[in-house]
Amino acid sequence: MKKLQTFFNLSVAEKTMFFKAYFLSAFVRFVTRYLPMRWWYKKLMGPRVEISNSVSFTKFTINEKNRMLKTIQIVRLACRYTPWKTKCLVESILVKKLVNKNLPIYLGLNKTKNRYNAHAWVIPGKQNNSMYKVVSVHI
User: How confident is the model at residue 126 (pLDDT cuts 50, 70, 90)?
Assistant: First the structure.
């Protein structure tokens, strides 16, 4: 019941973005899971840029930042209710596609106990991403 209440409290624009994110996540998940990376990498992620040349989050206006943060919230909400696993790479691609800006996707690595962990995110400095070493940035 609480889930329905959360959904009905969204505005019409947020509900539309929710459904876009939900169905687009199915497509992106299928593509990233079952198709070779060389087929989808540049189309979904965008071109790779030097880490020093990446777009800073501070270069966006306050309205654009608020829109991006709201989009991230909606994408996380939609991905929470998908019957498939939606990981950070899929969420980052969804945010990038829904915002329609040159929003960078950061790819990072972390090594703990002889094991490498990969992570993808769109806004630097969020979600304890400082423990990941940025290895690639795509715009």
Answer: low
